[in-house]
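Continuing the series of single-chain predictions for the mutant panel. This is the parent chain; the variants come on the following pages.
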Amino acid sequence: MIESRLVEHRPRRKWLRRLRQRSAVAMILSVRKGELHILMIKRAEREGDPWSGHMAFPGGRMDPDDRHGYAVALRETEEEIGIHLAESATCIGRLSEIRTRPRRGLLSMFITPFVFRLEKEVHFRPNHEVAEVVWVPLEFLLDTDQRETMSWQRKRLRMTLPCYIYNGRRIWGLSLMMLDELMDLVEGPNPQRRTWRRG
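Parent structure:
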């Protein structure tokens, strides 16, 4: 069902993306013990990294040698967790591009999420950027009773944002925006599952 909906899905694309820095991530789905899971990573704690310690998806910035976002998702996944998606998974679709918030005078960046279905068992080899690899049950994320809120502050701006806490790990922000779009495709839009969205 999710695959047919991804085929029909028309993800939003940002018209400025070709003029800005771009990145891509891999959202990897796998049935484990009869239940659909999605792979996430916890980023290593690194000074100066704005996403230090966050839950995220494998991915990163586009290099000059990368032909497109899909190539970025493949390369970064191999570099970060050591698996070759071209050999072990099938890309079943993509989600809408997300624009990041500019930091320290830099222009915003556009992130493209690609969705993969894992076809076989793999062994992870996380690099220094990844603290751990975590399989999160999609059923957990679809349960709106599991949804919580958190306080986020930058300088004078304070916001209350949605999040999930899965086994002590907080899932929020850009990753949650991507998950919400995926979950809307799985079971349809849900007014209780609305993420703070940036244009």
